[in-house]
Amino acid sequence: AGAATVKRAVELDKASRFQESLVCYQEGIDLLLQAVRGTKDEAKKQFYRQKISEYMSRAEDIKKHIEKEKQDGKYHKQIRIQENTSGFSYEKLFQEYLTEIVSEVWVEDPYIRQVHQLYNFLRFCEMLVKGPCKVKTIHLVTSYDEGIGKSQQINGLEEIQQSLRNYGVTLNIAFSSSIHDREIRFNNGWMIKIGRGLDYFKKPQGRFSIGYCDFDLRPCHETTVDVFHTKHTKKM
Fold first, then answer.
1. Which of the two residues, 170 and 73, has the higher pLDDT score?
2. What is the pLDDT of residue 104?
3. Which SMART domains is this protein grouped with (predicted)?
């Protein structure tokens, strides 16, 4: 398993997919360390240790490269979510960027309108409340629902706003008739653009079907996620 993981890391490394290769290097190193502890063959131990040293050195170089890209404002990672695939909950996409210094979040998404979209936003807010970040302010810019759904949308957002207030989080809500872009920004410099916004999950088969509650198990629509790092996060 360790050999297969580091092989994948090398492939990703050669393809300049550095963030993904770093994760694979780290997982592969852990597996090889377990192999060292589990074998009594000294020759194998020596071989594994040599490879571990090589992979650790390369992983450190990649870390420095990623950090430099971040400092230069050139970091870009792309994730392609294929139709009907699962395993892409909000935690999976956002958690690694929600460091402890994150205190302010901006969400631009024109489709926080219908009931299921309000629940999507609520789940996103729940993730922020759980931490490890210390979010104090969330800014939402969306568009009004059309027709009879408008009052339901406003009431739902106000209820989320009140609930967040109980956790010491302020939700600022603004509406725009011209908003088209979908992006999420954190005040530690990370920016995430999702082609479909927060609404990239498919409708569950039923209220008691697997994936209804756990978004990691919910099939997704095809979409693209672009992650950037900027020195300064612009404000709305």
1. 170
2. 97
3. MIT
The residues, ordered by sequence, that sit 6+ positions from 112 with a Cβ below 8 Å of its Cβ are 118, 120, 121, 140, 142, 153, 157, 198
Secondary structure of residue 19 in the 3-state scheme: helix
Paired sense of beta strands 170-175 and 137-142, if any:
parallel
CA angle 85, 142, 211 (to 5 degrees): 25
Q: Compute the Cα dihedral for 115, 117, 118, 123 and give only its sign.
A: positive
d(CA 219, CA 222): 10
Strands of the 223-229 sheet, one edge to the other: 75-81, 223-229, 190-194, 183-186, 104-108, 137-142, 170-175
Place of tokens 């550095």: 18
Q: Is 192 left (phi over 0), alpha (psi -120 to 50) or beta?
A: beta
- Region 56-85: mean pLDDT is 86
Q: How far apart are the first and last CA of the chain?
A: 47
Which own/partner pairs from 118-121 qualify as long-range (CB within 8 Å, at least 24 positions apart)?
118/153, 118/156, 118/157, 118/160, 120/198, 120/199, 120/201, 121/157, 121/160, 121/198
Binning pLDDT at 50, 70 and 90, where does residue 235 land? very low
Distance CA 206, CA 27 (A): 36
Reported as a single tens digit per residue, the pLDDT across 182-209 is 999 999 889 999 999 999 999 998 989 9
Which of 113, 169, 101 has its CA nearest to residue 141?
A: 113
Task: Give the model's confidence band at 174: pLDDT under 50 very low, under 70 low, under 90 confident, else very high.
Answer: very high
Domains of the chain in sequence order:
1-72 (1.20.58.80), 76-229 (3.30.870.30)
